[in-house]
């Protein structure tokens, strides 16, 4: 079966602001974004903040900033579901008046006892419709006595079927469902009531959401109908699993968009990675821009099986983006990491040179800033163990001293001149150039590996390079004394 979605669609992303935007939520938002952008229409952002105790103002802002950061675009909203409670209430009253819902006066204690009873028998609890059987008089009596009541939806006694974009044909038999609550006894609408009323009022045509909502959909479908709405097309995305094949958890590190952001993942890479966590573009391409994904997006290639979150792959993908992005596009993302490292005022030209030289060796922005720190630091710390072989070489300080003088005297501090001066010195002293190249790299970066040395020295510039050489010489001499 091939599904053809014709635009314009109206999709929504409806997070509950009870925490940071989780990668699962981000992926749901991304597929809604891709669908909306590929066929046209509108993306609605609806904040489901009816659980006042667990919802948080700061999280509402945080979720929006995380969405904007990964590049998800919404056309309408954010709408706060809590502001629509009177409307949810009004529609529940309509159902009540039309006989499509009924008052339930059963007490929590009565229901708990029934639930326990069912459990003992190993049965799933279904509300036995006690209050559906009440007569008009019995209802009036209870109302007159001010007995609290909930409002339950009168489920139709039929199979609920729908075709899920991801999972295909779904069929829920009548005994799988019961008359669920629309309004609690405190008058508050339940999630089911609010979500369906909002989806109708907002003209939602496609509901793409997590698989954890699949069991809610057979409740929502008849509720849409009872409220006179058009049933949207549903698509339930499979879970995202950790490497242990269980639901992705903190145990394996970051799980929220914000955490990946602080680790130095680029939003483009995260979007790309998340989009491929359950969707295949139909070719072998793994690095795709949002525009390319929009052009290729097809709900028929959404996967029904759970996706495993492979952090290594995300790091790899981020490395790809780090080396490919234009410097101008990369720069703003580096900003917070530069600031944290005290490099907010670094000379722009030297910064660009350093970043461009090292970006293909970093997997995250954090790592990249680590790599360029030596360009801007007054003094580096050398690890005696990593420098053991240099410390043993008695002649090395003498060689490096001359190298330092020759480099200091160069009229132009460019890589060819630096290279020629080092090779000339090595030749004069009967040394392989490597004997000078390795310790010089260590002197300048406190690391044994990195980009080609003379590119590095040129990018680092005269002051920092000579200063580090001086400090390294002092370190070698101290080592020799000790
Ligand atoms: N607010 C729900 C959640 O965060 C989503 C509701 C829906 O997509 O229908 O899980």
Shape label: elongated
Give the integer mean of the pLDDT values: 96
Helix fraction, binned, reads 40-55%
CATH superfamily of the largest domain: HUPs
Bound molecules: glutamic acid
Number of domains: 5
Notes on the protein architecture:
With 482 residues, the chain is mostly helical. It has 5 domains: 9-79 and 191-240, HUPs (Rossmann fold); 87-183, Glutamyl-tRNA Synthetase, domain 3; 250-327, Glutamyl-tRNA Synthetase, domain 2; 333-376, no CATH class; 379-482, Arc Repressor Mutant, subunit A, CATH 1.10.10.350. Helix content is 49%, strand content 11%. It has helices at residues 23-39, 57-70, 85-97, 108-120, 136-144, 191-201, 217-226, 257-263, 267-275, 290-296, 311-324, 327-340, 348-358, 365-376, 388-392, 396-408, 415-428, 433-445, 453-460, 462-481, and strands spanning 9-13, 41-47, 76-80, 101-104, 150-153, 160-164, 168-172, 181-183, 206-210, 233-237, 240-241, 307-308. The chain has a 3-stranded parallel beta sheet with strand order 1-2-3. A 3-stranded antiparallel beta sheet has the order 4-5-8. Strands 6-7 form a two-stranded antiparallel ribbon. β2 (41-47), α2 and β3 (76-80) form a beta-alpha-beta unit. The longest helix is centred in the C-terminal third of the chain and has 20 residues, at 462-481. The model has no long low-confidence stretch (mean pLDDT 96).
Summarize the structure.
This protein is mostly helical and 482 residues long. The protein is built from 20 helices and twelve strands.
Secondary-structure blueprint of this entry?
Elements: E1 9-13, H1 23-39, E2 41-47, H2 57-70, E3 76-80, H3 85-97, E4 101-104, H4 108-120, H5 136-144, E5 150-153, E6 160-164, E7 168-172, E8 181-183, H6 191-201, E9 206-210, H7 217-226, E10 233-237, E11 240-241, H8 257-263, H9 267-275, H10 290-296, E12 307-308, H11 311-324, H12 327-340, H13 348-358, H14 365-376, H15 388-392, H16 396-408, H17 415-428, H18 433-445, H19 453-460, H20 462-481
Parallel strand pairs: 1-2, 2-3, 9-10, 11-12
Antiparallel strand pairs: 4-5, 5-8, 6-7
Helix pairs in contact: 1-10, 3-6, 6-7, 9-11, 13-14, 13-19, 16-17, 16-20, 17-18, 17-19, 18-20
Bound molecules: glutamic acid.
Glutamic acid binds at residues 14-16, 48, 195, 209, 213.
């Amino acid at each position: 079966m091939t599904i053809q979605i014709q635009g314009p669609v109206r999709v929504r992303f409806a997070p509950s602001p009870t925490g940071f935007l989780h990668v699962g939520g981000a992926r749901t938002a991304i597929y809604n974004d891709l669908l909306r952008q590929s066929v046209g229409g509108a993306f609605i952002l609806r904040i489901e903040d009816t659980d006042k105790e667990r919802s948080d103002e700061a999280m509402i802002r945080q979720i929006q900033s995380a969405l904007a950061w990964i590049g998800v675009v919404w056309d309408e909203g954010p709408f706060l579901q809590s502001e629509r409670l009177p409307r949810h209430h009004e529609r529940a009253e309509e159902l009540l008046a039309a006989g499509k819902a009924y008052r339930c006066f059963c007490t929590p204690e009565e229901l708990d006892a029934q639930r326990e009873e069912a459990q003992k028998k190993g049965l799933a609890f279904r509300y036995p419709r006690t209050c559906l059987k009440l007569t008009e008089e019995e209802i009036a009596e209870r109302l007159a006595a001010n007995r609290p009541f909930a409002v339950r939806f009168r489920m139709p006694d039929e199979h609920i079927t729908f075709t899920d974009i991801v999972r295909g044909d779904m069929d829920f038999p009548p005994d799988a469902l019961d008359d669920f609550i629309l309004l609690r006894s405190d008058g508050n609408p339940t999630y089911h009531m609010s979500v369906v009323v909002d989806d109708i009022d907002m003209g939602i045509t496609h509901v793409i959401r997590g698989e954890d909502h699949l069991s809610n959909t057979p409740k929502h479908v008849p509720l849409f109908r009872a409220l006179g709405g058009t049933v949207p097309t549903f698509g339930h995305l499979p879970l995202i699993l950790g490497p242990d094949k269980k639901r992705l958890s903190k145990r394996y590190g970051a799980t929220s968009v914000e955490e990946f952001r602080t680790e130095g993942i680029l939003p483009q890479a995260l979007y790309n990675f998340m989009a491929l966590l359950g969707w295949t573009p139909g070719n072998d391409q793994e690095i795709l821009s949002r525009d390319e994904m929009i052009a290729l997006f097809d709900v028929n290639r959404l996967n029904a099986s759970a996706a495993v979150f492979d952090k290594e792959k995300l790091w790899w993908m981020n490395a790809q983006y780090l080396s490919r992005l234009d410097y101008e596009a990369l720069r703003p993302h580096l900003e917070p990491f530069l600031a944290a490292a005290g490099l907010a005022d670094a000379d722009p030209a030297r910064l660009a040179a350093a970043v461009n030289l090292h970006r293909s060796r970093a997997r995250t922005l954090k790592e990249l800033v680590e790599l360029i720190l030596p360009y801007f630091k007054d003094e580096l710390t050398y690890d005696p163990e990593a420098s053991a072989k240099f410390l043993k070489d008695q002649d090395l300080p003498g060689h490096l001293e001359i190298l330092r003088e020759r480099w200091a005297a160069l009229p132009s501090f460019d890589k060819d001149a630096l290279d020629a001066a080092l090779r000339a010195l090595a030749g004069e002293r009967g040394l392989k150039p490597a004997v000078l190249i390795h310790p010089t790299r260590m002197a300048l970066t406190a690391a044994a590996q990195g980009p080609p040395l003379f590119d590095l020295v040129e990018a680092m510039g005269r002051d920092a390079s000579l200063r580090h050489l001086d400090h390294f010489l002092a370190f070698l001499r101290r080592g020799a004394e000790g």
